[in-house]
Design brief:
Length: 168
């Protein structure tokens, strides 16, 4: 896990608070689980429109529970690939706080195969946690702190019904 460097001057206390906040409240009614199952089914069937609907249902249920405004989501085809002289990187998803829009890519960059369900769900939870940082916790930015990754992992393991793992 790669974390952002702490700010040198501005927002140091908010960055530290994000780093310390390692847990996330979870719905007791398991409201996200049916949407996660729908998402998994739609991905296996490679049905992009149904994946988009299931993502929207996930966002709706999560936004309602966390009492944050809903944001838009776009499910796109193959991930963008940035090739540099000595490296290549893929973009799995992103969140634009100004437009409150999440973009998430459903296919791998090179082979154009459907992304694994676990990777897709992890990206969905990651981007939702950026939304939470800004809308619920009111951080001035959403940094990739250790706490951020812990919160995203908590949501992922809950939504995917997988046992939590310690992050390193």
């Amino acid at each position: 896990m790669l974390t952002d460097s702490p700010s040198r001057k501005t927002n140091r206390s908010a960055f530290a608070e994000s780093d310390r906040m390692k847990t996330l409240d979870l719905p007791l009614d398991r409201a996200l689980l049916p949407t996660t199952k729908s998402l998994e089914w739609a991905m296996k069937a490679e049905m992009t429109l149904d994946v988009g609907r299931a993502c929207g249902d996930f966002w709706h249920a999560a936004s309602k529970f966390y009492k944050v405004p809903e944001c838009g989501i776009r499910v796109l085809a193959a991930r963008p690939l940035r090739v540099r002289e000595h490296s290549a990187t893929e973009l799995f998803g992103d969140y634009n706080p100004e437009t409150m829009l999440i973009r998430i890519w459903m296919r791998t960059a090179v082979r154009k195969e459907v992304t694994s369900f676990g990777t897709f769900l992890s990206t969905l939870c990651h981007e939702f946690c950026h939304h939470l940082d800004l809308q619920r916790f009111r951080f001035p930015d959403s940094w990739h702190t250790r706490g951020f990754y812990e919160r995203a992992a908590t949501l992922y393991h809950y939504a995917g019904e997988t046992p939590p793992k310690k992050l390193f």
